[in-house]
Amino acid sequence: EGQYVVKVDPATPNTSTLVLRSFLANTDTAHAKTAASNTCDGGGQNCRTVGSAATKIPLPSFDYKNSLVNNTGRADWTFLYFTGEVKGQVTLSGSGSAASGMNIQLQLCANTSWTPAATPVVPNTFTCTPSGAVVNGAADSGGNYSFTGLREGVYTVTAIPASVGSGLGTVQGILWILGSSDVQTVNLPVT
Length: 191
Prior knowledge:
By secondary structure, the protein is an all-beta fold. The protein has no helices and 18 strands. The chain is elongated.
């Protein structure tokens, strides 16, 4: 099964999907996991659907038995890639030198007050409703960090001192991963 972003009509939203973000100013989207069904469109074929039984939306799927792609050419869906990367360096804001001993937390946002843009924002002043667990990592001795294999979406990345007595603060950025193999560089200056 896959995960998709599906366009939904804002006037009649489907309650079984979660509105994740907008790709364009006036285009609402919904994030949903697909489910197999053998009664899609009344044809009896096995397909992937989103929504309730009354409003099934067939999505593209691969027929492994016959090596065929079903339900192609839809204009109202987008497959979510899991090939994104976030990387950067934690630095001391005064000198620009590497900040060592920093833990890094990455959080996917289910909803945010930020309008997604190509350029990450540091420091983050926007809200992020968390989706799933925080992914923990650490910057190396040069202050560098990296997270790979990320699904498309809006994320926050936060640098937190590994030890309480370090005298360093916490800084957070917000970013948008969009498309296949998107790499976002978010440098985090701490004070």
